[in-house]
Amino acid sequence: MHTPHEYAPERASPTTTRNAVSPMHVCLILDNTSLTDTVVQALEKAGRHRLTVFHDLSELTQSTLTPDAILIGLQQFTALRENEPMVYLRLSRRSRIVVVLSSRELLDAAHILAFADAWVFEDINVDRINELLDLGLEGHCLMPKQFLSRLGVDEIRLTLLPRLSEPEFETLRLLGQGLNNRTIANQLDLSEAVIKSMVRSVLSKLHFRNRTEAGVFAARQQSALQQARDGRMAQQHQPLSRSA
Asked: Full-prediction pTM beyond 0.85?
């Protein structure tokens, strides 16, 4: 069984110690080793924190530590909320919880991120982890500017297009032309009931609130959808390589 690893800040000189603030205790339980190493290095570089790294969720839930902040990966946080709700309540009362995730996970995680005190995006602003941690302790979150515009959210949705089946993808494109279910069904040679089901699936997979929002997205991103469609067609017609 792994034991938590603890990292202490470098010892300060006597003159600075008199004026120094006691180091903040930060616990980490992230979704992969590479991300853990990156965050630990960034926090150690600042030399302002006492760090404890947990290797799995059970170590965190069984720990008696009372850290100032818990940096937790999205997968770990989701498991904590769904499987250990009472532990989550206990931890959230005594520590600030900061979720670390990637930007493409934002829409999927929107329903659960409200239960965290702050978020850090590993592919956008993890290099500012010390600043973001300070903000998180004050109950604030620094949201990357691209998420505050429609085009920024569009970019996230474009990365999720591979989730759609071929008929679902075509349904989305036709929604962008303002077509109703019957017309889409005629164009795709499918039943209206099937199209109705696929519209619901598109809304769910790309996190649209309604078909109007999906249609506006498809119209706004017409060229990007066409490029994605061309890419799909190229993959389908790519010859299989023969092994030697």
From this structure: no
